[in-house]
UniProtKB/TrEMBL annotation:
Protein name: Uncharacterized protein
Length: 217
């Protein structure tokens, strides 16, 4: 569906831009930089909160022809183990490249292409979809809040996934327990101090990000 005004509501009270923000928030809580979610030994996917467990997401791009297209999708699986790959619902929002002055972001700035958020697609619009998305927003902003400083993160009981964000680095994610965060918080380190100290053992760069991850007992 086209939607030239992203601030117009498309789903209950949610606008296209709000739906886009929610998809991005949930995506952030998948520990991998590529969107592949680590699987635990019992076959479950690992998110920092069980309410995120049966969600999946992906992004795609199409550079053939004009306009170029970018989209991100969020979906809820019928089965958290994803054995059948069937969805309860799926929401996708998309951007198109534009030459106009009305755009939302520039890819590879400053010379890159401009993109405008202007379309969406909903597979199986159920009555509770807007409500579910709003609840996901609340959940993720709560997680944002409880992991905004190292002190709060240590107090939250969550562990962390350490991801090297260098584009071509294929270093596996490293998982640390809540204790590890508590020890470092006690040293008086800030979250950015801590990230600045982590050097990737594969590419040698200091470009690590910490993502909330369930603490393993
Ligand atoms: Zn690396």
């Amino acid at each position: 569906m086209r939607c030239e005004n992203p601030d117009e509501s498309i789903l209950g009270k949610l606008s296209l831009r709000e739906v886009k923000d929610i998809i991005e928030m949930v995506t952030k809580y998948s520990p991998s930089k590529t969107g592949n979610i680590p699987v635990t030994s019992n076959g479950y996917y690992c998110y920092p909160d069980p309410r995120l467990e049966d969600l999946g997401h992906r992004s795609s791009s199409d550079d053939e022809g004009w306009p170029r297209e970018r989209d991100i999708a969020l979906y809820r699986y019928k089965d958290a183990r994803r054995e059948y790959g069937e969805y309860v619902w799926q929401v996708k929002v998309g951007w198109e490249s534009t030459n106009g002055e009305d755009f939302d972001y520039i890819e590879n700035p400053p010379v890159g292409e401009k993109f405008k958020l202007n379309n969406y697609w909903i597979q199986r619009e159920i009555d509770t979809l807007a409500e579910e998305l709003t609840a996901l927003r609340d959940l993720c902003s709560g997680l944002d809040h409880s992991t905004s400083t190292l002190e709060e993160w240590a107090a939250s009981g969550l562990g962390a996934a350490i991801v090297c964000c260098e584009a071509w680095c294929s270093r596996d994610i490293v998982y640390v327990q809540n204790d590890w965060l508590i020890e470092r918080a006690k040293l008086g380190l800030s979250l950015s101090d801590l990230m600045g100290r982590i050097r990737c053992t594969k590419c040698g760069k200091r470009n690590a990000k910490l993502r909330p991850y369930p603490n393993r007992a």
